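INTERNAL AUDIT FORM
Audit reference: QA-55
Scope: verify that the stored structure record matches its stored sequence.
Auditor: D.O.
Record contents follow.
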Amino acid sequence: MRLYETGLEYLRDELAVLERGMRMLIADFESKEIDGQTPMSMRGLIVSPADIERSLQESEPHEEEDALASFRGFRLEAEQAFEQNVSDSISEGRRLPFAYLSWSLQLSNWEKRCVLLCLASELDTRYESWFGYLNDDVTLRVPTAELALRLLADREQDTDHARRLLAGYSTLSRFVLRTDKGTAAAERSSLKQPLRMDSRIISFLLETEKLDSRIADICLFIGLQDPAPMLAFGEELQEGLRQAVQLERNRNVKQASDERISNRTLPFIQLSGPSGSGKKLHARLLSQALEQPLLLVKLDKLAREAEAMAEQLRHVVREALLSGAVLCVDEGAGEAAAAEGWPIRMEAIRAALASYSEVSRLPVILWLTRLERRSSQLPVPAFAALIHQAVHIPDAEMRLQLWQRCSNEDADQELLKRLADKYAFTAGQIAGMSLQAERLSARRKHAIPTLDDYASASRTQVQHRLSELAEKQKLVRQWDNLILPDEPLELLKDACSRHKYSETVFNRWGFGQKLPYGRGLSMLFAGPPGTGKTMAAEVVAGELGLELYRIDLSRVVSKYIGETEKNLRELFAEAENSGAILFFDEGDSLFGKRTEVKDSNDRFANMEAAYLLQRIETFDGVSILATNLLQNMDEAFLRRMQVIVKFPFPDAAQREQIFRSLLPKEAPLDPDLDLPFLAARVDASGGHIKNIVLSAAFMAAAEQSPIGMRHMVRATRQELHKMGKIVVKESFEPYN
């Protein structure tokens, strides 16, 4: 018994047997030389009469030579010894790529010998000269079909079978050999076709590449030795998927004994769910449970051109076969499966997946998608067993357990509970957010991470494209900046509490079972311009610790039919993914009353409004609509608003508060500044008061003096004129 320490050691033993056969052929070739034959240095460049004479002698039938028969016997004995040594070495944990290649592609003895013949010159350059000599062509320094058929068969009768193994649809031709498409190759006979191995097979056997470099940008390989996910959840889901795969495999074992059944079933698992719900994590956990690597293919990265895509898919399938991997296709954002030309692309992908399932010993296909798709929308190969599993973001109780697992023992448990309720994150996001929060707390010299640390860390865990359709708002205003009567202020605080305790009400108290949709928070802020609606949206976002995005209607509304709905769908999907608040300023332009249908424009406008009605109700996040004209809002929208806050025009006392809140502590103030006087005479909203205070500050700065009444009165007159109001000179006596 011999144990191989490396795969190269085993290859060299196999190569020693091949070398003996090559030497036997060369000796036989030389023994048939006759006078006048072309010298060795010129062979393959010219053809002499002696060469023709030799070829005529070789074409005459003759009995199998003793040397070839002796070599075949020697080779069979050596291969039997290798088989035992390989088995013992693998059982001891040695990695032997050539043996694994033969097993994974289910290669016959002849095919294994063919692979070694093609690999020989990669291990020993002498073979190039030998091939050129035996081919009688110095330009053909690689093995040919003729040489392989002559040297590798055990019997003369095996030649026909070997020819079929070199045919186009054989495993050898599809995944091991590469096809030469040049003119020279096309002009050769089939016997003189060069046999060249694909570069990935060479790199696999010599262990110079972990993944085929040609598909490195469209694939991700996750081996069994790669670090396991930090956190795992959904054990029941995982067990269900594992059992489903095992059920199909058990069925295949039973069918293998029934000669009437020629096809085996293939587990084709569709995992659907929103972005960030953990589909990739579940795919990885399943592959680990099956003790198989995972090859993740990014569908949107595949080439659009048919021939290039077919070549990429062939490389992908070969990679999955070489590694024995579970093949996982990720739609990504879902646009690839909805793009033009998808039916044709789907057929190419279906053919590739069928090829994988046909050759792989333990085939499993995973398809990751945001939206559940019917079987007709998926490239499901024939005889595949389609299994669908929806994947959801873990609930608050599971998220709390995940937070506890990745936090220090001295962490504030009440704070962790608030985080679990607030952030609908996956296990990976929770682990990343926890680590980032610890880094921030150390940098800020906090003993343990605070809520602000976690809020800052949360923004690093979300990737979205909201900035393409909306404008991010800075959150600098707080509750004390918001001057409102008690009733609207109380409504705003109740709305914040509604979001904070949604997990308790909907999940812990069971209201979610009674209300399957409409679990988000939708608010309508109505009031005259400048009464604080935008400020209130900022304050609410700051209180909830969420980002606020103001919708840019110019990027959303389109004159083309269906584009507005598409933009809105993307907008809400990105908001759900990120947890950001959507702020529709001037909301009546989108959410206005539907009109009587008099032409096609009215019909499509109503379709947009109807879509918004449905989407607002099913949106699980926070949305805020602001309008100056409540009477213009559609009644159906008003019914779907959980909270309606009316912002009244401020009275004199509130205007005085607004004046005071807008004056910074650092600003120099003149002692004559009479804010109650201004508040009583300036009949304006907070927005206009902000303009007055800012204008007065610039006037005072230009004079290098404190802000006084003359600056305020002058700025007030300008603002009132801008508003179109008539200002009586005596209105501001004695400060005129």
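Auditor finding: record pair retrieved intact. The first strand starts at residue 177 and ends at 178.
Action required: none
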